[in-house]
Amino acid sequence: MKPLYLAYTTMASGLFFTGFPAFFFYTRLSGRYGKGLKERLGFIPHRISRRLSDRPRIWLHAASLGEVNVASPIIKSLKQLVPDCSLVLSTTTEHGQDLANEMIGDVAVFYAPIDLTFSVRKALSGVRPDVMVFLETEIWPSWLFEAHRSGIRTALINGRVSNRSIRRYLRFRPFFVDVLKNFDVFSMIGTVDARRISEMGADLKKIEINGNAKYELLADQADPALEADMRRVLNLEPSHPVFVAGSTRDGEETMILDVYEKILKQFPDAILVIAPRHVVRTPAIESLLRTRGFRYQLLSELKGGTATRAERVVIMNTFGELFKLYSVGTINFCGASLVPLGGQNPMEAAVWGKAVFYGPSMEDFLDAKVLLEREDAGIQVEDTESFGEKALWFLNHPDELRERGNRAGKAALMNLGAAEKHAGVITRLL
């Protein structure tokens, strides 16, 4: 066992055994954070074991909502390529678990083991997969080491390495060189991701580039019925311009309101919907709106039928509906980009045939940004003033805005087939 890996396992185990007793009693007393605890310790439920009669067995790990959205089209392709395979899916978060059960109902779903030797060893012996698949940026040293030691083939699929995370990884490159040796293949999204995983220490012979499977799922989900439902919930007239600020982060809402005030001067019927990246920030946004003199309503009230939208500003305080919201946007903005946080996925708006606005910080979705700008469909804004000017210009030139949206929709379809390519990488390991 390499010294760096030994140090990692020793430190992780020490932290776990030191903190677990207090954590366990807290979950018993409060009733919080105890869901799936046995599974996180490596105990595979009988409901999972009973469904694992077939071979080959493929275990996919999707940490949260984003990775589950990637897993769905890849699982669909795997069922076509290897119809007799047995598939299981693990998640880390509760929201990921809920979405997986909703989207992929015919695949056994459970909580992933903590990255400790005893828990991953127990979980692997319970599932006994032939191939272990990690999605996007899930790189867990103990899990990988134990899978490799057990003769299980391992793959990083739809792999991506963000601009911010590469700096952290490179600080510990000697450690990750050893960790990445446990992968049999790296099926990356784009050339930048391939280069970064190579810089971290991955073997160039194991790296492939196969596109982004997440965009493929979006194309399947863009159902006109979803747009009609959102228009009904928001009580929108066809003439209403709708300014959607999606996945906003702290500091962006102030800028969004500055832009909205400029829009209102020319388009007084414009509606603003703010969808924060983290709904726990809703009270802070409410406070900001009150300070700025804006009346508002919460989406949860409108969806629950307890109110009809009568105010010009709505806060989206519900989970998993931003994609549907983009369908009604006239001006669609992807957040975490006017602040230096790497941006959010612009294809969620583009797939609806909508032009996409974003700030200068799009490092985490560089492949999507490049694709949109190559098709003259993405619209980058530098600051509040630039955003206000461009938003008003396009609102006053609706034909040009519509044409940009058409090009964005075509760009989003260019990734079709990525899920099948990634699934093909997995089947080759069998």
Mean pLDDT: 93
The termini sit apart by 27 Å
State the CATH topology of the largest domain: Rossmann fold
The helix tally amounts to: 21
Would you write up a description of this structure?
By secondary structure, the protein is an alpha/beta fold. It is built from 21 helices and 14 strands. The protein has helices spanning 3-30, 37-40, 46-49, 65-81, 94-103, 117-127, 141-149, 163-171, 173-180, 191-200, 213-221, 224-234, 252-266, 282-292, 299-303, 322-326, 347-350, 366-374, 384-395, 398-412, 418-429; strands spanning 57-61, 86-91, 108-111, 131-135, 153-159, 185-188, 207-209, 242-248, 271-276, 296-298, 313-315, 331-334, 356-358, 378-380. The strands form 2 sheets. It has a 7-stranded parallel β-sheet with strand order 3-2-1-4-5-6-7, with helices on both faces. Strands 10-11-9-8-12-13-14 form a 7-stranded parallel β-sheet. Helix 15 links the parallel strand 10 (296-298) and strand 11. Helix 4 (65-81) packs across helix 11 (213-221) and helix 4 crosses helix 21 (418-429).
Protein traits:
alpha/beta; Rossmann fold; seven-stranded parallel β-sheet; 430 residues; 51% helix
